[in-house]
Amino acid sequence: MKPRKSLPQVVIIGRPNVGKSTLFNRLVGKKLALVDDQPGVTRDRRMGHAGLQGLEFEAVDTAGWEDEDDATLPGRMRVQTQVSLKGADAALFVVDSRAGLTPLDEEIGRWLRQQEVPVVLIANKAEGNAGQSGILEAYSLGLGEPIPVSAEHGEGVADLYTALAPLISDRAEWLEIEAEAEAAIAADEAAARALAAAEAGEELEELDPTSPLSLAIVGRPNAGKSTLVNRMLGEDRLLTGPEAGITRDSIAVDWEWDDPQSGETRIIKLIDTAGMRKRAKVVDKLEKLSVADGLRAVDYAEVVVLLLDATRGLEVQDLKIASQVVEEGRALMVAINKWDIAEDPSALFNGIRGALEEGLSQLRGVPLFAVSAMTGKGLDTMLAAAFKLREDWSRRVPTAALNRWFDDALAANPPPAPGGRRIKLRYITQVGTRPPRFVIFGTRLTDLPNSYERYLLNGIRKALGFGAVPVRLTLKSPKNPYDSNRGGGGKFSGGQGRD
User: Fold this and answer.
1) I need a labelling partner for 257 at 20 to 30 A (CA). Which of 8, 408, 412, 492 fits?
2) Which residues are 124's β-sheet partners?
3) pLDDT of residue 199
4) Are strands 303-309 and 213-218 parallel, antiparallel or unpaired?
5) Residues in CB range of 303: below 8 A, 6 or more apart
6) Residue 144 in marked binding region
7) pLDDT > 90? residue 408
């Protein structure tokens, strides 16, 4: 289990509220990191692909440096920042030119001078003349000439490029050559697979099984999400502790997992998210931003793991989170964490299974696993199942097989004839994957009972092997040009209706 190779790493360091996350967002060209006026918003390291006038690197946003004991939350955040510098190619030390130097800036400067990583000194918030005195003070840090920058307005980017490029450009060029070579090898292998499939008369799979799996971990606060990710990575990559709500940003980490069953190395993008409490309890602006960031992470994930706390069981909030995941069309699995300290584990597992079947009626048979973030129990089994779940979520049914099932389903249970008028279901087609989406064409579909829709939907899942993935079913009638009130619009099942 190992992190993936990356571009040259540039770590952004500084005390709280000097604009590190704003600079990070500017470099990556997206608002990835949460930004707010209050200090200490960032807690975990966040990485993003950055570009600066053609120079590509991996930018690393870090928590604000605070002079606190290592055992405290601010102290643990500082330790995470110090660890982030190991293996980095350069550091951007950000100071607030308007506020001037503080004793904490000087402490950080002394620590950086003792490191072997080259440092570029950034005097942020330098728009206008208000920051001139702070820029001059920054010379006293002994880290070379400060670069005046306004991360919020994008000023000083050219000067930043001039200072940073000599430090990382050599490695960036070497990695680019290496990446091109790997891409050429991958292209040759893909061409060979395509030729072999063509000779065998087979259709190529739409999903590349070697593509990275985007796996998001969600759940209530203190369920152990960050601890679980750290266990997978084999390092204290994310900040953890007894305090609830430590994680604020959704943090994505690329990782290579060695599958013990197949012996293959599989690529996973792990996404840790902030804990999601009941909406009524979320009143703080920053927590609202964190929850919204977590929901966006779900939107971009392929498979979502809902992590439960074995000491608390399944609660109403867990079912609400699960429903949101299903409504977004993501593949869902549930893991019960802290299994090593669970009381009466057999009864707990069966109880949660029954509660899921009852409370998540729109999706039966959601995969359920017992895991321990502390010991690593059950993680390999869960990850192997996540790849299988993605295959189902991404699968396209051959047209012939789909129509055979459809004909058999109609013959076994014909549509009803309300008022003596037949409802005709003519044919079915699959219009998309991820999640699987089907359209049934027919007439008088507005009269089709919901129970018959459920019959068709359950048949798609069982007979066509989709199991516990969300399936979207849409009913469409031909438009009647003489009737503006009937036909044409159809009705939807899944997402907007049934799922």
Assistant:
1) 8
2) 96
3) 45
4) parallel
5) 213, 214, 215, 216, 330, 331, 332, 333, 386, 389, 390, 393
6) no
7) yes
Q: Is 377 annotated as a binding residue?
A: no
Note the pTM of the prediction, 2 decimals: 0.67
User: According to the annotation, is 250 in a ligand binding site?
Assistant: no
Query: Which percentage of the chain shows pLDDT scores above 90?
Result: 46
The kind and range of the H/E element at 194 are: helix 157-200
Q: Which tokens in the block code for residue 400?
A: 């012939």
Q: Answer yes or no: is 99 a known binding residue.
A: no
Task: State residue 425's pLDDT score.
Answer: 94
Say whether 15 counts as a known binding-site residue: yes
**CB neighbours of 407 closer than 8 A, spacing ≥ 6?**
none
- Torsion angle, alpha carbons of 24, 64, 229, 434, to 10: -30
Q: Supply 213's token pair.
A: 């799996």
For the chain, which domains are there?
2-170 (3.40.50.300), 213-393 (3.40.50.300), 399-493 (3.30.300.20)
Q: Is 439 helix (H, G, I), strand (E, B) or coil?
A: strand
Amino acid letter at 343?
E
Residue 61, annotated as binding a ligand: yes
Contacts (Cβ under 8 Å, ≥6 apart) of 153: 127
3-state helix, strand, coil in the chain (%, to 5): 40, 20, 40
pLDDT tens profile 328-369? 999 999 999 999 999 999 999 999 999 999 998 888 889 999
255 is in an annotated binding site: no
288 known member of a binding site: no
60 is in an annotated binding site: no
Is 275 within any annotated ligand binding site?
Answer: yes
pLDDT > 70 in the chain, percent: 78
pLDDT by residue (tens digit) across 204-218? 345 677 789 999 999
Was 436 annotated as part of a binding site? no
Six token digits for residue 407:
């004909």
CA 137 to chain centre: 41
Is 109 one of the annotated binding-site residues?
no
